[in-house]
Design goal:
The chain has about 425 residues and is of the alpha+beta class. It is about 40% helix and about 25% strand. Strand 5, helix 3 and strand 6 (about 105-115) form a beta-alpha-beta unit. The radius of gyration is 21 Å and the shape is globular.
Length: about 425
């Protein structure tokens, strides 16, 4: 395979060239398989998905995915010290660049405790080859193969899926040609007006700070139990809101209260859109690709604001934007925006970002193999939000994973923000 990168893929590559930028996913296991079984299963996945055998090739200023003749299998086994060992490994993984020119665009570390049969699979993926939807599907397939190899000594998948073209080649007809240009112009003017308004309103007020010295990314995570998630979901439905808007609003309010002293200020957050159901033809989660869009929203936040009103304000902006098709335009203009941000290095893009994945396909058990937790992180970024997060539903619980820079906050401050999020959501449903 040799396929030129699309515009969104180039944007992700430019971001990674500025600073390491990739996803790191964690599967926590009990009754864990041996390292050899995981290695063999990972090799099956590599043979099945062509993007797990490619590198990035530059030719005359153009970048391509190019299949490696001998891709090798970037799989490493480490002895598992304790239940928190994986946190240290993830923080190192977030800051370690993938060698995109000579190696496959992924790597896997297996923390294994043979005595207690506990383990963590830590999967690092370059963002050009996989989005959240295909990453969780890939992990589900990997676990299925692990269980099959251990129990039946057989492989439940065979053959190779076709490689996927760039997302813009499958935009619906209303977002191609002249119509796309008109949509793009309208969106650009809207963003320009938002930028002018934001700069005027934040004059002499706190905004996400730039840090001249190198900083290190750290992680923190919380879990919300099933009963709390059910109550939040019911209230969100009554308010005609999505859980994504509710969670995002809680992040904004907590950051405002802890980092901005509750002062009234416009704050910027990012929400992510999965384009797979909307392209023509739709793309299944079984195919590795980066079919997502990143959209920025500005809302007024202050310490004493009514939480549900904030969630409604944010949801209205998200709903209107998605309904008008901005998810397609935002995907296309990400490249020039990333070029601008990384070349100027004069501002941070926002205060928060949340990628809400919803219910994921990973199961609590695969035969004797037990999954006790699933986590997802994206590398901390010096020009990115002060607090970014991935949230997913697994085994009826919400796993909420946060990333922050040590220059933005201490661990105690990060914990204070996440505990404030818990408090905000509990109060929102009358607890």
């Amino acid at each position: 395979m040799k396929r030129e990168l699309g515009t969104f893929e180039r944007a992700l590559m430019i971001a990674d060239n500025h600073a390491p930028f990739h996803s790191v996913s964690v599967i926590k296991l009990e009754c864990a398989p041996s390292p050899q079984i995981v290695r063999n299963a990972l090799k099956v996945m590599q043979d099945h998905h062509p993007f797990l055998s490619v590198r990035l090739l530059e030719e005359q200023g153009h970048y391509h995915f190019a299949t490696l003749v001998e891709p090798g299998l970037p799989f490493h086994v480490l002895p598992r010290w304790n239940d928190g060992h994986w946190v240290d490994v993830v923080e190192v993984e977030m800051g370690n660049r993938i060698n995109t020119s000579t190696s496959p665009l992924f790597r896997c570390t297996y923390l294994y405790d043979a005595t207690h049969e506990r383990a963590e699979i830590i999967l690092t993926l370059h963002p050009t080859i996989a989005d959240s939807a295909s990453t969780t599907r890939l992990m589900h397939e990997l676990l299925k193969v692990c269980a099959s190899l251990r129990d039946e000594k057989t492989v439940p998948v065979s053959g190779q899926v076709p490689h996927t073209n760039a997302v813009e080649t499958r935009f619906p007809p209303a977002f191609r040609g002249l119509q796309l240009s008109l949509h793009t112009l309208r969106y650009a003017l809207t963003q320009l007006a938002d930028e002018i308004s934001y700069r005027m309103q934040t004059r002499d007020r706190r905004i996400p700070p730039l840090h001249p010295k190198p900083t290190r990314g750290h992680i923190h995570f919380i879990q919300l139990p099933e009963d709390l998630v059910d109550e939040l979901s019911r209230r969100a439905r009554l308010e005609k809101l999505t859980l994504n808007s509710v969670l995002n609003a809680a992040m904004l309010l907590a950051v405002n209260q802890e980092l901005y002293a509750g002062q009234p200020v416009p704050m910027r957050t990012f929400s992510f859109a999965n384009l797979r159901p909307y392209v023509k033809p739709p793309l299944s989660d079984q195919e590795l690709a980066s079919y997502a869009s990143i959209l920025r929203y500005t809302v007024a936040v202050e310490g004493g604001i009514d939480f549900w009103q904030l969630a409604r304000d944010l949801h209205a902006k998200i709903y209107s934007s998605l309904k008008s098709g901005n998810k397609f335009v935002a995907n296309l203009i990400t490249e020039p925006l990333i070029k601008l941000v990384t070349s100027l290095k004069s501002f941070r893009v926002g205060a928060t970002a949340l990628n809400y994945n919803g219910a994921i396909p990973i199961q609590p058990s695969y035969s004797a193999l037990k999954v006790t937790g699933v986590h997802a992180f994206v590398s901390a970024y010096d020009l990115g939000p002060e607090l970014s997060a991935q949230a997913l539903l697994f085994n009826d619980q919400l796993f909420w994973d946060f990333v922050y820079l040590d220059a933005d906050m201490t661990r105690d401050e990060a914990i204070a923000i996440t505990e404030e999020i818990r408090t905000i959501l509990a109060h929102a449903i009358g607890r």
